[in-house]
Amino acid sequence: MSSVDSILNTVRHNQESANPGLKILVVDDEPVLLEYVRHVLQRCGHHWLLSDSGAEAWAIFRDGPDEIDLVLTDLVMPGSFGGLELARRIRQIRPRLPVLFMTGTPQIDPVTARLSRDRLLLKKPFHPDQLVAIVEESSRH
Predict the structure, then answer these.
(1) Per-residue pLDDT for 1 more than 60?
(2) Looking at residue 66, what DSSP letter applies?
(3) Is the pLDDT score of 94 beyond 70?
(4) Helix 128-139 crosses helix 3-15 at what angle (to 10 degrees)?
(5) What is residue 11's predicted lDDT score, i.e. its pLDDT?
(6) Under 8 Å CB-to-CB from 130, ≥6 apart: which residues?
(7) Rounded mean pLDDT, 60-78
(8) What is the mean pLDDT of residues 77-98?
(9) How far is 17 from 100, CA to CA, in rounded Å?
(10) Where do the structural domains in the chain lie, given as residue ranges?
(11) Are 76 and 83 in contact (CB under 8 A)?
């Protein structure tokens, strides 16, 4: 068993009493990261929808806005819009839906500082337990 699988088994065991079975829309332009997040979510009993762009994620959301329990999106993506614009659009329809952000950008600006302070930001690369913790915490609010 790999060390990641061992960690995920522990995380899944700890998560079983929390909020298993969430449907999470994951948005990132990096296929490897999408697969990594999918793997972690699957091992924790969550369901996922994967998208590689803000525009595609917006279309997925519009097709079933009440089916999604949480959104996890990259802040910066190529294309027509990134994570902040996606969150703005989603909040027009479901203002209370939790939206979490990921970034690989090392710069700290006012937006990333606020997201980090509010515990809504994952800095890439992140550990599986960090992903599970932020999803669990956000799903309780």
Answers:
(1) no
(2) G
(3) yes
(4) 20
(5) 45
(6) 122
(7) 96
(8) 95
(9) 22
(10) 3-139
(11) yes
pLDDT value for 109: 87
> Do residues 9 and 40 lie in contact, with contact meaning Cβ atoms separated by under 8 Å?
no
- Find, among 86, 118, 83, 132, the residue nearest to 103 by Cα: 83
Residue (of 66, 65, 83) closest to 26 by Cα position: 83
Map residue 73 onto helix, strand or coil: strand
Q: Could you count the other beta carbons within 10 Å of the beta carbon of residue 42? A: 13
d(CA 15, CA 3) in angstroms, rounded, equals: 18
Query: What amino acid occupies position 42?
Result: Q
* Rounded Cα gap, residues 55 and 9, in angstroms: 34
Which segments of 28-133 are extended strands (E)? 47-51, 70-74, 99-103, 121-123
Class of CATH domain 3-139: alpha beta
Residues 6+ apart with CB under 8 A from 12: 43, 44, 45
